[in-house]
Amino acid sequence: MVGNKSDNGMYISIGGRVLRRGHTTGTCATAASKAAAEMLIAGKDVLSVKVVTPKGIALDLPVEDISRGNGWVQCAVRKDGGDDIDVTDGHLVYSRVGIVDAGIKIDGGPGVGRVTKKGLDQPVGAAAINSVPRSMISEALEGIRMTLGYDGGFDVVISIPNGQELAEKTFNPRLGIEGGISVLGTSGIVEPMSEKAVVDTIKAEISIRKEEGRKSLLVVPGNYGTGYIGTIDRLDPGSAVRCSNYIGETLDYACELGFEGFLLIGNLGKLVKLAGGIMNTHSREADARMEILAANAALAGASAETVRRIMGCVSTDDALDFLDGDLMLKTLDIVSEKIGFYMNHRTGGRMKCGAFIFSSKYGMIGRTPEAECLLEAMGGRL
Questions:
Q1: Span 225-232, mean pLDDT?
Q2: Packed helices 289-299 and 326-347: angle between N→C axes, nearest 10 degrees
């Protein structure tokens, strides 16, 4: 359920909680650009500015820190993440708008990153201001030209103080965006509790690997997987895409881009969920680790008492303590086979999928049938 007319659509109900939406850095850049352009042409202060986001939500945003020079005006609009706070929440996004003869030029200034790798929304060398915010800014300035009867052009520079420091807390350095943060937003609105930003970041990283010419994708859920890759001979941890909990979406997008292979390396505590067909491994989606491990241990011949002990465990490492020798090997063989089955089921056999499963306590404990072949194709060696 989204917000009603009285709240202008800025509230949404999720799981019985009423949460507030925010507005993106792209919306801030658009609003600041519109206000600066109006002040530049009309010669009067603008203390608030109205914008309509691509989502269709109208906003009236305060304008801050106005300054003027010869042929330019600069002002800022403050980022508001709503109830989905990120590193840019509360920071000012500036736009400096100058007069030029014709056209609308949009670039990034201090604190806005530069693209250094292919496969992202903007070409290499361009400011990391994505296509939707660029369109929003251009449309807003075209509106100013029409409203105020101005037939010249605008030179727009977006900047974000402390953007370079803020970027260190984001995925930007890993994605090849250097020197600052990105100006983002496809809808202009920040959705509270949204997973979209994380998935979009994963997709961007996968696109970079595709542009690098890779035929197979190396994937880890997070830091544990990255650390374990460092122990595998000839395999570069820096080449791995971090998929967080979104293994299903990562498989889907790798298929969409035409990768031939997909190798996942992760800890049993997360990957065991795949053996039950669970492709979003966040605990709020499903946490059947012990149920899946216990069921497969039973299939491998574990006693009823062992199954009960596993069900009473908090971590998979603790559960493995009850699976000695051959029983552990048999259990993990079944788990690995099912992981491979569900990965291939998700992709419909469109690419070769494999996984290595490790334990913080026991090391490498499982592999799907295609895993070693994929590893060798990537130049790695156990």
A1: 87
A2: 120
The answer to whether the predicted template modeling score (pTM) of the entire model surpasses 0.90 is: no
CA distance 250 to 245: 9
**Per-residue exposure over 250-272, b if at least 16 CB sit within 10 Å of its own CB, e if not:** bbbbbbebebebbbbbbbbbbbb
Rg (CA), the chain: 25
- Closest by CA to 302, choosing from 275, 323, 329, 318, is 323
Architecture field, domain 22-190: 2-Layer Sandwich (3.30)
Task: Look at residue 14 and tell me whether its pLDDT is greater than 80.
Answer: no
Residues sharing a CB contact under 8 Å with residue 362, sequence separation 6 or more, in sequence order: 317, 320, 328
d(CA 209, CA 199): 16
Give the amino acid at 227.
Answer: G
User: Distance between CA 352 and CA 338 in Å, rounded?
Assistant: 15
> pLDDT tens for residues 312-351?
987 899 899 999 889 999 999 999 999 999 999 999 999 9
Task: Return the domain boundaries, the chain.
Answer: 22-190, 196-377
**Which residue matches tokens 């492709």?**
279
Region of residue 105 (phi > 0: left; psi between -120 and 50: alpha; otherwise: beta): beta
* DSSP-based three-state secondary structure for 78: strand
